[in-house]
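Let us work through a complete example step by step.
Step 1: write down the sequence.
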Amino acid sequence: MRVRVATTALGITAALLAVPACSTDTAGTDTSTRTGKPADAAQQAAPLTSATLQTRLLDQSDLGSGYLRKQERLTQHDDVTVIGCPALSELGGDAATGGTLTFPHKAKAAFTYGGSSSEVAEELYSDSADKLSDGIGRIFDAMTGCPTYQVVAGGTPIGMASQKLPAPRNLGDEQWSQLLTFSTGGKSTVVKQTAIRDGSLLLIVSGSPALVDRHLDKALAKATTTS
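Step 2: predict the structure and record it as tokens.
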């Protein structure tokens, strides 16, 4: 299965070309956690529809005061080249900006916080447990396997640095986490990205590290609700 490298991993790149960059902490340790493989029961769970996933995204009432929903950006089709990371190029360097992962059922939302450049984005996908595990696992492995590389999007060079982070062991069936630093025009932006697979559902929360940590548990709880 070919998985597009997208707003998850990523076409956060595209967003960074349009918003002011800011410097933040890059503290973290070079470790990661992937626990378990898809269990038989999880493999047999029916995928959720996109409409159902949409109802399970966090909204402004879940996040609290100070958050504003961002309008979804149109997919961009700029030429994209990945330099210095062959594994990521093989996954689809031409799709490194814009779009979403090509799982059949999906929903996403993004928010700004406090009128600043701080943002948090949530993406939900549903498919068989095996396909989710393989797809997102290969993307994280490719990205964190290249500590530094460069993405050229629409002629704009973006320096990339990736760092594995400890993933939250107590959430879901499998977990991935990384810290990404985007550098362009003499400025840098740090984005934390954590993915949790729970059965046939995949949650990805990306954005300012503090906001990802603040809302991850809440996002998973709402995404996996059965009511």
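Step 3: interpret the result. The first helix runs from residue 12 to 16.
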